[in-house]
Write a structure and sequence with these properties.
Rossmann fold, binds NADP nicotinamide-adenine-dinucleotide phosphate, alpha/beta, globular, about 300 residues, 2 domains, 15 strands, 8 helices
């Protein structure tokens, strides 16, 4: 089969070449990949992967061989899948644990955004507990995880405040469900019950300072690439600042993702969740799509295979 493989002799650390088909173990189904959607993290780790690795976490396609142990999706099903590697290829292996199924007429390009971005947003928000009628801050609203978090928090009944440094994205965030869009957590006019942070650094420190008593901040991303420095008093628990929680999140430690991925895929297919796609391009254009300096609208770039 053809696959993008790590090749450190190329400036993009990638080469499209012929590789052996992946060999399924007893729990693996084989998916013919129709679309994949690279993540910030996928691209960041390319320089550190060994030559020859087939990278990629998220891919959607059609099952062409079922797992020998009878678990997982059935032949012909449209699926969206999460794996450690192997997504940027014509075929990949998936297990029942991290595969969502879509309706038979679902578009794999739309479903390919589910595994990391939408699922992280959903699982991260759950850490905040019930948000109905509560004020929730999404720090980094225009990151792909943030674009899903805004929609899902609004769907769950939260009053959503999103941050973006990009003034041209404010209207889009409002359309996705943000009640208020601000440049930074420092601009909050009043406190929030919960926060999902995709940026880290000073954004996280400022967001924590605006948590209401009993509130939770989920540190999910660190896209700003800056250090977090808490000053003396920032972690005080006196009146008005008591019982605040800061918790970390890692999608790779989450279990039983299948039902959530299936729900997200269905919501996208039925038009209740925007797949936040910025561009759909043929997979041969992968290095160009993410070339340094290439500007794109916030959201997912999806590559279609075949
Ligand atoms: N913990 C987990 O399991 C998990 C799962 C998924 C993702 N993540 C992490 O979550 C973060 C978001 O991922 P993603 O794929 O959604 O990222 P993404 O789509 O690439 O978006 C990154 C965002 O960060 C913003 N940004 C970067 N530097 C900034 C700065 N200095 N100040 C303000 N904004 C800044 C960018 O704004 P511009 O558009 O203006 O450049 C963009 O909106 C990443 O750190 C990723 O590694 C973690």
């Amino acid at each position: 089969m053809l696959a993008w493989t790590v090749d450190h002799s190329s400036p993009a650390h990638l080469a499209l070449r012929e590789v052996p088909d992946p060999e399924p173990g007893p729990h693996d189904a084989v998916v013919e990949v129709r679309a994949f959607a690279p993540n910030h993290g996928d691209l960041e780790m390319l320089p550190a992967l060994p030559d020859g690795t087939v990278p990629g976490w998220d891919a959607a396609g059609v099952v062409v061989a079922e797992a020998a142990d009878g678990t997982g999706p059935r032949c012909g099903q449209v699926v969206t899948s999460l794996g450690t590697h192997g997504a940027w290829a014509q075929r990949r292996l998936v297990t029942a644990e991290s595969v969502g199924t879509g309706p038979a007429d679902a578009d794999p390009a739309a479903l390919s955004v589910v595994p990391v971005a939408a699922t992280s947003a959903l699982r991260g928000l759950r850490r905040l507990g019930p948000v109905l009628g509560r004020r929730v801050l999404v720090v980094g609203g225009t990151s792909t995880v943030g674009l899903f978090a805004v929609q899902l928090a609004a769907r769950a009944g939260a009053e959503v405040v999103a941050t973006t440094r990009d003034a041209t994205s404010r209207e889009r965030l409002a359309r996705l469900g943000a009640h208020e869009v601000i440049a930074s957590p420092a601009d909050l006019t009043h406190d929030v019950s919960g926060a999902l942070d995709l940026l880290g650094g000073p954004h996280l420190v400022q967001a924590f300072a605006r948590l209401a008593p009993g509130g939770t901040l989920v540190a999910l991303g660190h896209a700003a690439g800056q250090e977090e420095h808490f000053g003396y008093g920032d972690l005080f628990g006196d009146d008005g600042r008591h019982d605040r929680t800061l918790t970390t999140f890692f999608l790779g430690a989450e279990t039983g993702l299948g039902p959530d991925m299936t729900w997200l895929a269905t919501e996208i297919h039925e038009g209740r969740l925007d797949p936040v796609t910025a561009a759909v391009r043929p997979w041969e254009e992968l290095p160009d799509a993410f070339a340094p300096g290439s500007r794109r609208a916030p959201g997912k770039v999806v590559l279609t295979v075949g």
